[in-house]
Design a protein that fits this description.
The chain is α+β, with helices and mostly antiparallel strands. It has seven helices and nine strands. 26% of the residues lie in helices and 30% in strands.
């Protein structure tokens, strides 16, 4: 693990059940720089289910599919991992990541877990990439009274707009409202699900 501890990319390891068994020091550095709550620091993540930290049913299902696909790779046939592009922006900084999921093999050749490496490939002030808005629950609450945030880009759906308009609300990223649902905006659906 010494090599992974020195790796500047965010690295975490999952066992076959999807439990986080290791995160490198870059994990905590990224969480702090990205405005993450204390609950996402390594001391609170190791030993928990990885999918419990992913918002939105559709997004969780996508990550679960990737996890299963990586585990099903046969080490004797030159198994390859899976790369996934995503956005992980903070209230003030747009960040684009590429995450590589690689199988970890036992001596028997069976995948015993998954290693994930996330590297930042682009950064810019958030206002250069998204329309930024002030928080206003009344403007963003849908007919159910809930606010919908894209689980990928973290933009928020402006209620009642057709076609649907999504705005970046830094305050909702920094401190999510209690009535927050996760979905996937049309742009992220096209970029990451086509």
């Amino acid at each position: 693990m010494e090599v992974l501890d020195r790796e500047p990319a965010v690295v975490y390891a999952l066992d076959r059940a999807g439990t986080v068994v290791y995160v490198n020091p870059a994990w905590d550095r990224f969480a702090r720089a990205n405005g993450g709550p204390r609950a996402v620091l390594s001391e609170h993540v190791v030993g928990t289910r990885w999918l419990d930290h992913i918002g939105g049913e559709e997004t969780r299902a996508r990550f679960e599919e990737i996890f299963r696909r990586v585990l099903e790779r046969d080490g004797t046939r030159g198994a390859r991992g899976v790369s996934l592009w995503s956005e992980c922006s903070s209230p003030g900084l747009y960040r684009k990541l590429v995450t590589r999921f690689e199988p970890v093999f036992a001596a028997s050749g069976e995948a015993e877990g998954v290693l994930s490496l996330s590297t930042i490939i682009a950064e810019a002030p958030i206002a250069e990439r998204h329309v930024v808005s002030l928080p206003d629950d009344a403007r963003f609450q849908g007919t159910t009274g809930r606010i919908t945030q894209c689980a990928w880009c973290r933009r928020v759906h402006l209620a009642g707009t057709e076609p649907r308009l999504w705005l970046f609300v830094p305050a909702y990223v920094e401190s999510p409202p209690s009535l927050l649902d996760h979905g996937i905006c049309e742009l992220c659906r096209e970029l990451y699900y086509r």
